[in-house]
Amino acid sequence: MSLNVIDLIKGQLGPALVSQAASQFGESESGISKAIxxxxxxxxxxxxxxxDNPGVVDAxxxxxxxxxxxxxxxxxxxxxxxxxxxxSLFGDKIGGLVNSIASFSGISNNSAGSLLNLVTxxxxxxxxxxxxxxNLGASGISSLLNDQKGIISSLLPAGLSLASFGLGAENxxxxxxxxxxxxxxxxxxxxxxxxxxxxxxxxxxxREIREQFENNNNNNQGGGSIWKWLLPLLxxxxxxxxxxxxxEKKQTTTTMTSTSDSTGxxxxxxxxxSTPATTATPVTKxxxxxxxxxxxxxxxxxxxxxxxxxxxxxxxxxNAADDAALKDKxxxxxxVNFKMGSSTELEAGSQGQLxxxxxxxxxxxxxxxxxxxxxxxxxxxxxxxxxxxxxxDFIKAALAKAGVGAQVLGAEGYGSKFAKVDAKASxxxxxxxxxxxxxxxx
Length: 442
Fold this sequence. Notes:
alpha+beta, four-stranded mixed β-sheet, 6 strands, about 55% helix, globular
């Protein structure tokens, strides 16, 4: 399975950056997050579509050493690498892309434009860093980008498509153009067939009417005059009726076959309509005071700290007979996130929850835990297991450094073994499978 570079880039666009961007641009965090969710597949798609462009590959190579990843909010908008690259990727379609994202996410066009620069900076910086870390040359970067063509369109959020960005589907992701041509050709063939059938039916109807006319004429020589004007009228009505029925039949067939899944977008050759998917409004969580024997920890009500403290205070751990009674209950970290592709660097805001876990273990010195790392179903499984194991080991080492190492009995990376969301689902949906967790153990 090909590496999904979007999963690498998300580490740079985590909750901490979303919060900072919302504050800097004067937008809601949900709007910023929604905009990033639409921009990221579009930018990666633009790179994939230009995978063999030497200028694009060169920009990615330079970005890894430009320091842009360390200053996404401050340096992306004015960085010449980014502005030149965007022009190469989207040309005169940039305005349409920005307008679509602004409308989709409910933020201003100025904010959407700034986010486009930011996301592009995070993308090329991340891909460039990955290439440098893995010794990928120009051909390796091109191959990596080409691998993204099969998955990008499926990652666009509901309500967005390449067409909605003003990007011609015939120029994106390989087979789209062939699909459109095939559909158009089929529609033409169907219409031609319908016209031919209609002509045959009209001819047959005319023959029957003519025979009836001749029979009547023979039976009543004096009554034939009415047919001089009635026959042409009947022929005209019959022709119109058969043509209408046949074309209606073929148009229905064309409409039913005009949606292409090859790029995840709809080819609207027969004026079809679609009902937009309903998206759930994200629930905003706010840190509250969690009571740890009189000491107040900052955490979500019902979050990891709250659940663990409640379990320990109610003697749930003490009363558990053995490890088997504890192994099925995992507590997911709410704040601990690693930077893209890293197993040694945490995002800003992660350390606070690790400190909370240390405080809980020190308050209950008899409690023992295990650490678990997880990924979603995308990417190479061997790499997923390796990364999740390294991250679990990092947290275990951090707890040991904080003085509670004796209470950590183990750490294991499970890769995508327990992932539930399909690999073709949106990135936002698959985020539920990418996590770090902890459970009590004996």
